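Researcher: I'd like a structural prediction for the single chain below. Treat it as a standalone chain; there are no partners to consider.
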Amino acid sequence: MTASDQAGGGRHRSRELTAWQGVGAELPGGWSIVQASGGTDEGYVRSDGPDEMTVELRWKRTRRQPSLEVVAEQYLKQVRKASRKLKVEYEGALAGGRRVPREKPSDLRFEWLADRQGHGRLIWCRECRRTVIAQVSGPRGEATRAVAEQILPRVRDHSDGESVEWGVYGLEFRVPKGLRLIRQRLMSGFLSLNFYGPPGRVIVERWGLAEMLLEGGFLAWHDKEYLSELKRFGGETTAVEWGEHEALVTEGREGGFRRVRALVKAFLLPGRAERFASIVWHCPDSNRVVGVRAFGRSPLELARSVAETVRCH
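Model: Treating it as a single chain, here is the predicted structure.
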């Protein structure tokens, strides 16, 4: 799956963010995630770019600061082992790191040379307690080194503030801390990330090929398709201007006989029914539709707090 597939015909940016669980890096335009897994404590993200270049981010949270020299040596041993299987020559080296006085390095560089070459950066963050291994690899030559020098200084081990940064196939947004990813769908032409936590539940979605999707009109698609999963809900929809985009805002409350019966069975009052809100807009510049829906005590406020951080083009 390529970035152009995800864009649904949208244009490439000169630079975009790839981030998962707050760990990320700014990449040149045209790169795309091919693998993403893990949670806040441990995970892995890989993005591929042109000319057979790759960026990999690995992270793990630990109580104590590890020795980055040891972590780097262990990682380079894995590269050495793989290069032996390929029967190619291998060279590896560690570069000096940034050191707090009387403490271990908290930022270390490494590089290796085999059939391909790799340039990496190891970071340990006292605030988030994460050790991050960032690596750029590609064909042997100065081009790979030059790309690495663009990317590695921009690696982020966590998000600042009270929200967590995400960047997937050109869709960039933030969700409040305390919300954890519980479900994801990363498909050609469609993204969905479902978060849950104390503030409530948030679903961030994006559709490509908007011109085809909205042939029957934006409102018709919204009512027939976007709200189709919410048949148990009743609410009102209002057309608004969302920045420079045409948007639809919906507010409602869970209802229907099945919901009432469930509430009675659970000895709850109908007033406790779950509230929801959604904000959906069409972005012609990227030929996409973006939606944020939220459930909880203050769903519109929650949906707005996320939607306001979205970068859709």
